[in-house]
């Protein structure tokens, strides 16, 4: 089968993914062989390529996978050949530790990530346990479904962790693949809330998209919004954004940051300005299967629509470089077959 292989840590500018012919994997008794239709492109892939998140090497990247069941192991009972399924960042967890038993498998020490610890979706085929894949709702095309599996699911988890209630003001710092889905969730679940969006600079393409999608106010990170925020979500790779977001939180406000790694350090905080009055900072670590299931059902019920930029399989390096430079809006999706 054809696969895009990352052999070594390097800069995205070096065009590090190479198309190679590799053996098609074979499922064990509980696994499914998936023929991949498309795979979402995620900022985490930049982190893996450049070493901020360390993958196994060599590795096939990609963790927002949509495809069809090609073959099943003899003990698989939940899916059959021809079924359309999705695969997300969570590839497996131990199922036995404290965290798994309380429903927080995202914190399991044996958590394995798709396209990082095991091979992912930048290929014609991949393997997945029947317990770690999901039926895709019928009202989504393959391409529309792909970003829901990470950008959407982690955005949904981030929003849950803010403890938002209807009527809260929420700030979205960064407006890319995840945030442009989150604003749709907010508009669907919290109709009396205001959404303020903070982008790299006023008037950029992300700002324009935020206005089109119903943001109540749009500015650049560092701008003072009309009112302080009760909740905030940071999806940016820049460390300074955490300080700026905490600075515009209301008393008792909570900031959730949903990056695995920041590309720069968080500047020094002033306790009086950034944390006092019961402000909170919380990180998101991975996702659970329940997050994905809940979000797919929600996305179907409120008709989430991702802004998609499609890329041919052979253009994966170009797509990742464009993502790094912020040269397209919404979510990138790699077309595999």
Task: Provide an overview of this structure.
The chain is an alpha/beta fold and 337 residues long. The chain has two domains: 2-149 and 287-335, Medium-chain alcohol dehydrogenases, catalytic domain (Quinone Oxidoreductase, Chain A, domain 1); 153-283, NAD(P)-binding Rossmann-like Domain (Rossmann fold, 3-Layer(aba) Sandwich), CATH 3.40.50. 24% of the residues lie in helices and 26% in strands. It has helices spanning 43-50, 98-101, 142-145, 151-161, 179-189, 205-212, 240-247, 271-275, 289-301, 316-325, and strands at residues 2-5, 18-21, 31-41, 65-72, 84-87, 90-92, 112-113, 125-129, 134-135, 169-173, 194-199, 217-220, 229-234, 249-257, 280-283, 308-312, 331-335. Strands 3, 4, 5, 8, 9, 16 and 17 form a seven-stranded mixed β-sheet that branches. A six-stranded parallel β-sheet has the order 12-11-10-13-14-15, with helices on both faces. Helix 4 (151-161) crosses helix 9 (289-301). The longest helix has 13 residues, at 289-301. The radius of gyration is 20 Å and the shape is globular. The model has no long low-confidence stretch (mean pLDDT 97).
CATH topology of the largest domain: Quinone Oxidoreductase, Chain A, domain 1
Mean pLDDT: 97
Summed up, the helix count is 10
Listing every helix as H and every strand as E from the N terminus to the C terminus, the arrangement reads EEEHEEEHEEEHHEHEHEEHEHEHEHE
CATH level-four homologous superfamily name of the largest domain:
Medium-chain alcohol dehydrogenases, catalytic domain
Architecture of the largest domain in CATH?
Answer: Alpha-Beta Complex
Whole-number radius of gyration? 20 Å
